[in-house]
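Slide 14.
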Amino acid sequence: MAATQTPALTKERFLAATTFDEYVQRMKVNKEQMLQHVEEVQVPAEDVEWWRSQGKLNVFVLTYDGCGDALYNIPVLAKIAKNAPNIDLRVVQREENLDIIDQHLNQGIYRSVPCFIFLDENYQEIANLKERAESMTRIFEQEQLDVRRRLRVQYKEPWRAEMLREFKEVVANKKKYP
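Slide 15: predicted structure.
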């Protein structure tokens, strides 16, 4: 019989976590941008009503201050929570909560942030979202691929010269890359 994994995110741990406002006050970088983005976000009334109709929701967000995706994604949920009093939003540093992020790895291997964990009124996980909307990830990946292809063509000759140099250096120094 396999042992069941004890959830790291308990009611007590959730309630001890910082609120969004407390998190922002403690931010060491990007505080002004976070506040500006929260101010800029517009949530349509019908979306606010949908969130209000969901009953009590507790949302635990793992992040770090320097995360670019956090600057764009957390303000959306913060604005929703501000307008839907049934949502209790807590935000914590990923590095101080590795046991929780390790139970929510992106693609099973990445400690991606922000990581949004949605809990019901009994603090049981009902959903999660890692990093960003899937549609935006597809756009970013395609754009990055297009840029890499363009740069390979643009820097074809320097690329080849660097590879010639690097191949010699690796063999001469018996260097192994991980």
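Speaker note: Strands lie at 57-63, 87-93, 115-119, 125-130.
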